[in-house]
């Protein structure tokens, strides 16, 4: 076999594998979106076809007006908005203080924060978290989730901000200091404006996380459907007893919850992939 | 737990840079202490109590004795978690690696494939659970329909009716959801390998197979070690996927460790709230996770030294 033939063959095999995986990956999403346009009758009688015989918007209308999805969408939007906004501020401030601040015990505190990555118990700490939130009276709404996410010190974000600020020349700080800037005002006027690319990364990571999160918003809105975000609301349909009759709502709801995420991903796709890997390398 | 401002005898005013740094950091440090270490302290305290939402009585190590001697369901849940994690990682990690290598060839259309293959990673895990449980529904589910129409099965499989088929469904859903991020990590690792090494190897006539085992794998081993550790710990901690799809069906036999303990904490799905016992199981789970990570690091460090 000559070299060119071999190269061609390897390219063909590569494409075949990629296309098979592509189908496997896209199929569930495609199925969901197509299903969401089927009429309820068609869903219950002939589930075998993927493409609907007739495209109808009934499911969306029903989900939106009858099944509370307008409220869920609004809840998701405001929860994500405040988490993104808050995290941008708290992550950059913490990164700045740990990188440029000089105070006793800084390295010890940093080590304690980072080591929390290794003692994380996942969903097992949710109940104690709710109980602690109860002391502050924030256990009954999404504000609990927002405050915990914003103030809870995300180690990944801390790493990427600290590393990023390290690349900013210290001479800029010195110059600001000579001009009479304090530690705080140096951050506000000099450092923060330099962090724009980093802010985009944090915003996207945090949006993905808060929009998709299920466990934490679920335990904070248990038995309060009017406060649930989209993901919690959609999954609730499944366990609410009339599961079989609400397939159409589940499919439409799933589509509604996925559309904003996919849209943001398609627009900022480069930041997404860079951002999601950035945190891991340092970790 | 919280950190006091640094005491300097000279000038402790708001104009001092160190004071400003500590003050700026204070809200986050308090939030961190309360919401990261707070819950762990809470669990460590209540694991020695018999407690529900209203009262708590000290009972010493009874909760642990109960978990070890009288609760086979807990160990079943742990075994399920291990089986599910092992089963899906054996497919997921090599799949992610192969795809990363294919995407690293730089063929035309790579960007397109990279964008679309990453889609599952931006989908909520709970939503993934929901979509897959709809696709694998026994009546009129699309998976049964496809398998029937190509003739692989003669009548619909009741996927949720049997522990093993339900675990299969969870595994497939989890692979779908998690392979893209590992693929991207591996791709990033591959791109950090200097191309000169491959050029030399090509001149020496090294076969692609050998090239993978002797050059690529050793070069990405340090990153792969961390990626696989994260994948292992992540899959042992799976909870939302199971809650949103099987929710333990059939009859609690696909319960994983996180959902099992979660239900004792919250009394979810009609269970009585037992905070003390749930805390004790959390402690055991935490120790289990730590042991798995330690063994993994030991073994892989040895393997790293072989190269």
Could you estimate the helical fraction of the residues of chain A in percent? over 70%
The CATH topology label of the largest domain in chain A is MetI-like fold
Low-confidence stretches of chain A: none
The count of helical stretches of chain B stands at 12
Class of the largest domain in chain B, according to the CATH hierarchy? Mainly Alpha
Largest sheet of chain B: 2 strands, antiparallel
- The CATH class label of the largest domain in chain A is Mainly Alpha
Shape summary of chain B: globular
| Structural class category of chain A | mainly alpha
* CATH homologous superfamily classification of the largest domain in chain B: MetI-like
Radius of gyration of chain B: 25 Å
CATH topology of the largest domain in chain B: MetI-like fold
Architecture per CATH nomenclature, i.e. the level-2 architecture of the largest domain in chain B: Orthogonal Bundle
Reading the helices and strands of chain B in chain order gives HEEHHHHHHHHHHH
Describe the structure.
The complex is a heterodimer of chains A (283) and B (307). Chain A has two domains: 41 residues, no CATH class; 220 residues, MetI-like fold (Orthogonal Bundle), CATH 1.10.3720. The model of chain A has no long low-confidence stretch (mean pLDDT 88). Chain A is globular, with a radius of gyration of 24 Å. Chain A has 14 helices and no strands. With 283 residues, chain A is mainly alpha-helical. The longest helix of chain A is centred in the C-terminal third of the chain and has 36 residues. Chain B starts with 16 loop residues before the first helix and ends with a helix. The model of chain B has no long low-confidence stretch (mean pLDDT 89). Chain B contains twelve helices and two strands; from the N terminus they run αββααααααααααα. Chain B has two domains: 33 residues, no CATH class; 242 residues, MetI-like fold, CATH 1.10.3720. Chain B is globular, with a radius of gyration of 25 Å.
């Amino acid at each position: 076999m000559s070299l060119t033939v071999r190269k061609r063959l390897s390219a063909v095999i590569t494409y075949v594998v990629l296309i098979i995986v592509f189908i496997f990956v896209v199929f569930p999403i495609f199925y969901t979106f197509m299903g969401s346009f089927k009429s309820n009758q068609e869903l219950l009688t002939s589930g075998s076809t993927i493409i609907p015989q007739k495209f109808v918007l009934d499911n969306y209308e029903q989900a939106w007006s009858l099944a509370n999805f307008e409220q869920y969408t609004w809840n998701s939007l405001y929860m994500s908005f405040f988490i993104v906004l808050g995290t941008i501020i708290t992550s950059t401030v913490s990164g700045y203080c740990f990188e440029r601040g000089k105070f006793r015990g800084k390295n010890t505190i940093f080590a304690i924060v980072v080591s929390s990555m290794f003692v994380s118990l996942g969903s097992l700490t949710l109940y104690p978290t709710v109980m602690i939130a109860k002391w502050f009276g924030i256990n009954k709404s999404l504000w609990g989730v927002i405050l915990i996410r914003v103030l809870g010190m995300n180690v990944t974000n801390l790493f990427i901000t600290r590393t990023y600020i390290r690349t900013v020349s210290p001479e800029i700080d010195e110059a600001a200091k000579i001009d009479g800037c304090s530690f705080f005002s140096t951050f506000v006027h000099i450092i923060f404006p330099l962090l724009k690319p980093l802010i985009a990364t944090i915003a996207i990571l945090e949006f993905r996380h808060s929009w998709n999160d299920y466990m934490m918003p679920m335990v904070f809105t248990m038995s309060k459907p009017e406060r649930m975000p989209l993901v919690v609301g959609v999954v609730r349909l499944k366990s609410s007893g009339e599961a079989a009759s609400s397939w159409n709502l589940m499919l439409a709801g799933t589509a509604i919850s996925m559309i904003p995420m996919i849209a943001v991903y398609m627009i900022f796709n480069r930041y997404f992939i860079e951002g999601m890997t950035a945190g891991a390398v340092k970790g | 737990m919280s950190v006091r401002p640094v005491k300097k005898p000279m000038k402790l005013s708001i104009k001092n840079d160190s004071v400003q740094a500590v003050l700026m950091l204070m809200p986050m440090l308090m939030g961190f202490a309360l919401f990261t270490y707070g819950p762990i302290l809470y669990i460590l305290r209540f694991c020695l109590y018999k407690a529900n939402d209203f009262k708590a009585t000290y009972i010493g190590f009874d909760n642990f004795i109960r978990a070890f001697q009288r609760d086979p369901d807990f160990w079943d849940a742990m075994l399920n978690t291990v089986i599910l994690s092992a089963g899906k990682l054996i497919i997921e990690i090599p799949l992610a690696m192969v795809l990363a290598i294919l995407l690293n060839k730089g063929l035309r259309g790579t960007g397109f494939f990279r964008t679309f293959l990453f889609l599952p990673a931006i989908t909520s895990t709970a939503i993934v659970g929901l979509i897959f449980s709809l696709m694998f529904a026994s009546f009129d589910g699309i998976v049964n329909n496809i398998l029937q129409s190509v003739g692989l099965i003669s009548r619909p499989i009741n996927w949720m009716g049997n522990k093993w088929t339900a675990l299969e469904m969870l595994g497939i859903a989890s692979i779908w959801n998690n392979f893209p991020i590992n693929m991207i990590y591996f791709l990033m690792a591959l791109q950090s390998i200097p191309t000169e090494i491959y050029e030399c190897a090509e001149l020496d006539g090294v076969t692609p197979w050998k090239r993978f085992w002797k050059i690529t794998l050793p070069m990405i081993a340090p990153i792969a070690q961390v990626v696989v550790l994260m994948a292992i710990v992540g899959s042992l901690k799976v909870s939302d996927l199971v809650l949103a799809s099987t929710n333990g069906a059939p009859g609690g036999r696909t319960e994983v460790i996180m959902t099992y303990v979660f239900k004792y904490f919250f009394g979810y799905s009609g269970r009585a709230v037992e905070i003390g016992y749930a805390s004790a199981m959390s402690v055991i789970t935490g120790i289990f996770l730590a042991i798995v990570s330690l063994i993994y690091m030991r073994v892989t460090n040895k393997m790293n030294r072989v190269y």
